From TrEMBL:
Classification via Gene3D superfamilies: Nucleotide-binding domain of ferredoxin-NADP reductase (FNR) module (3.40.50.80), Translation factors (2.40.30.10)
Topology of the protein relative to the lipid bilayer: Multi-pass membrane protein
Residues spanning the membrane: 32-53, 78-97, 118-142, 148-172, 184-204, 216-236
Species assigned in the record: Paractinoplanes durhamensis
Claim: Signal is one of the keywords in the record: no
Name this polypeptide is given: Oxidoreductase
Cofactor(s) demanded: FAD
Location of the protein in the cell: Membrane
A Pfam family assignment: Ferric_reduct
Residues making up the signal peptide according to the UniProt record: none
UniProt region (Disordered), positions on chain: 1-26
InterPro entries listed in its UniProt record: FAD-bd_FR_type, Fe3_Rdtase_TM_dom, FNR_nucleotide-bd, MRET, OxRdtase_FAD/NAD-bd, Riboflavin_synthase-like_b-brl
Length: 476
């Protein structure tokens, strides 16, 4: 048996709940937005470096001695502070930034800048302490104690540093695995407190700011933009959208083992800027714990009348979804994600789904303007009983000519997107067999992280161009 003949669909003529009026095609994000964002981040680091140079940093370093150590500490402090503010901007949910980069890429950069700024901050504390102690011919620990208790803003900075240390420790992969998502998310919010407390001491005591109105104005501007972005886009915009659309649960439907779909209605949903393939952060006002948000993708094409999400019971807050009652209010943040049809105008398209990852791809099947026979969906599941939305998939096969291939079975022993019984095939070769036009196709991939990485690599090895390979990861 070949991989392409792994399984077949059974056609059905019923209407698809995910069909209907598709969301209007919205403007594609200009490509230069991403370049402009990266350039702005680089320029901010150059500016703070220039502040250090303008205040004699290079001369102090080349002069040696305790002043050189203190100068190096000032530079690492400026870089750490700048990256901390950039880290806040990365996850401030700014629509322009979100559309340019996508949440999964922003999350990776957020982690990188977070750990980098933390170690620069540690270097700053050590170098400044050693440098000041050397100049005063004092013990380094005694000098640190003196700075904390006598320098303006240092008590606040110490409290902020402790908060940031807690966030960094709980963000290490080994620690995250031992925490529930809700617990990790709550602890992670202390990063805002840490940033808010750790930075002001530079304006009050920093050599690069004292007596320099331009430097102070720049720093307060960067600080204000970061704080303002959080207030506007993490608080203000979601509050406005929730007030405007007022989402409530219409009904709840079981879809399969551990899978539940939630249908929601509201006001002016045709004005909600959501596309197939995107996700929201959801809070349901059904009792204690409602304040903890969870990311769920739209599992049906938004049609201006109703939204649908489908949730897998993973044992945390997701287990409560099945018990939601009609009329329960929902709060949203979003939409987020760039795994949309913004750059697709027709032609062959391949969608690779694993498990619950089929949900955003199902929504995309309803929106993408492919022709009969141009779309292939490869759906990976452990067994046939775990296939969700079988009737809807049959509808797409019958009404829109989608070719659907089911891959069942346990995982392969090697890293692969194929099940164990097909592990003898090369990952890229199997993909070419299932979708002969893969190299010319737009490819959408969604599933668990390891599986998605293997599928992305297979698609790239099969000749898919980077601009036509679309994924969205939901790891935290």
């Amino acid at each position: 048996m070949t991989v392409a003949a792994a399984s077949s669909h059974v056609a059905s003529s019923q209407d698809s709940p995910s069909s209907g009026a598709s969301a209007p095609v919205r403007r594609t994000t200009p490509r230069w937005w991403a370049d402009a964002g990266g350039l702005g981040a680089g320029v901010s680091l150059l500016i703070v470096t220039a502040l250090w140079v303008g205040n004699g940093g290079v001369q102090q370093v080349t002069g040696g001695g305790a002043d050189a150590v203190s100068a190096a500490g000032r530079l690492t402090g400026l870089w750490a502070s700048d990256l901390l503010l950039l880290q806040v901007l990365l996850m401030a949910r700014i629509p322009l930034v979100e559309r340019a980069f996508g949440q999964d890429r922003l999350a990776r950069w957020h982690r990188w800048t977070g750990f980098t700024s933390f170690w620069l901050m540690v270097a700053h504390v050590v170098l400044i302490t050693v440098g000041y102690a050397g100049a005063a011919h004092a013990n380094a620990f005694a000098e640190l104690w003196t700075m904390i208790w006598t320098y303006p803003g240092m008590l606040l900075a110490t409290a902020g540093t402790l908060a940031l240390i807690m966030v960094v420790v709980t963000s290490v992969r080994a620690a995250r695995r031992k925490l529930r998502y809700e617990s990790w998310h709550l602890l992670h919010l202390y990063a805002y407190l840490g940033v808010g407390l750790a930075l002001p001491h530079q304006l009050w005591t920093g050599t690069d700011f004292i007596g320099s109105p331009a430097s102070i104005a720049y720093w307060w501007t960067l600080y204000g933009v970061s704080a303002g972005s959080v207030v506007v886009y993490r608080l203000g915009l979601p509050a406005w959208r929730n007030w405007r659309h007022r989402l409530v649960v219409s009904h709840v439907t079981p879809e399969g083992p551990g899978l539940t779909s939630v249908y929601l209605t509201g006001r002016a949903l045709d004005r909600l800027p959501a596309r197939a393939g995107q996700f929201f952060q959801w809070r349901f006002l059904d009792g204690p714990g409602w304040s903890r948000a969870h990311p769920y993708s739209l599992s049906a094409t938004p049609n201006g009348q109703m939204l649908r999400i489908t949730v897998k019971d993973l044992g945390d807050g997701s287990s409560r979804v099945a018990s939601l009652r009609p009329g329960t209010k929902a709060l949203i943040e979003g939409p987020y994600g760039t795994m949309t049809g913004a750059t697709y105008a027709g032609g062959p398209v391949v969608l690779l789904a694993c498990g619950i990852g089929v949900t955003p791809l199902l929504a995309l099947l309803g929106e993408l303007p492919y022709g009969p026979g141009e779309a292939t969906l490869v759906y990976r599941a452990r067994n046939e009983a775990e296939v969700a939305f079988r009737a809807e998939l049959d509808w797409f096969a019958t009404r829109r000519g989608v070719r659907i291939i089911y891959l069942f079975g346990p995982r392969a022993e090697r890293p692969s997107w194929l099940p164990a019984k097909f592990a003898g095939y090369g990952d890229a070769a199997a993909l070419r067999q299932m979708a002969p036009l893969i190299a010319d196709s737009h490819v959408y991939v969604c599933g668990p992280d390891a599986w998605t990485d293997a599928a992305r690599k297979a698609a790239a090895d099969a000749g898919v161009k980077p601009g036509q390979l679309h994924t969205e990861l939901f790891s935290w």
